[in-house]
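Researcher: Here's the sequence for the chain we discussed earlier.
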Amino acid sequence: MPLLVLALALAFQSAPGPEPPARQVTITVTDEKGGPVEGLGLQDVAVLEDGVARPVTEFEADSRPLTLAVLVDSSAPMSSFYRLNLVEPVERFLAALPEGSRFAVWTTGDRPQKVADYGQDAAQASRALRRVYPQGGNTLLDAIVEASRDLKDEEGRRAVVLIVTGLGPGFTNHDRHRVVDEGMKSGATFLAVHFDEGRVTLDPRNRESGEVSAFEYEYVLEQLSERSGGQRQSLLSPMAIGTAVAQMAGAVRAQYRLRYEPLPAGGKDDRKLEVTVARPGARAQVGAVKP
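Model: Thanks. This is the structure I predict for it:
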C-alpha cells in the first residue's frame, strides 16, 4: 500500500496542470498621424507577456456595435468658444461614427447632465448641445462616474467614452481613485481631448473640500486612457480641438479584438502585456485584459 500511495503522489506531481483560459483584449492601432490602421490580420501581430512570446489565436477588426458616451465641458470658462471649438468638432465626430452606433451626450457645467439619451440621431444630439448655456464650475469627474455607471457594458457591444474639456475650475464628490475605478468598471475605452484654458492649480493642503486640482484632472484622464487602451491629447489651445477630435474618430475605427494564450497559472496577476504589429509607424495601444 505505501508503494501504491507513493506512485500516485508522483503521478499527480508530474501531471501538467490545467491550461489557463485564453485572454481577450481590445487593441487600438493607429499610424504616426493618429489615423486608423486597417486591414490587419493574425499574421501581422505579436504578443509578449512579461517578455515571453505567447500564441495569438484571434486578431480581427472589432465590428461589434458601438455604445458611446460623449462628455462635453459646458462650464463658465468655456462660454467664449463652447459652440465653435467644442460643439462643432463633437458634431463631426458623431457623424463619422460607424453605422449602427448608439450614443449619449453629457455636459459638465454646474452639474453632470445627460442632454441626449442613447440613440442614433446625431442631429438631435447636436440640437441638445447647442441649447446648453455654459455656466458654473466643471463637474467632469462626477460626470465620468455617472456616465460610466449609465454606460452599460452590454453583451456583444463595445463601449467608448469621449471627453472634451478645458480642465477649468471645478468640484467633485468623488476621490480620484474612485473615479478611475468606476470608469474602468464600464469596460469602455476612454478618449480624452483637453486644453489648458482656465485650468486651476490648487495646493491640496489649502484647497477647500470638493475642489479639483490640476493634478487630479491629469491623474484621472491619464489613468483612464492608458488602462483602457485609449488615447489622451493635451492641447495648448482650443483651436486645435477639431483636429484632435477627428483623430479620436479614427481611433474608434481602429479597434481590434485580440485573443491569446497567457502564461501558465500561478504567476502574478499584473503581467506586462506588449503588442506589436508589422506595419511601419503603427502604434498598438492595449486595453484592459479580460479572461
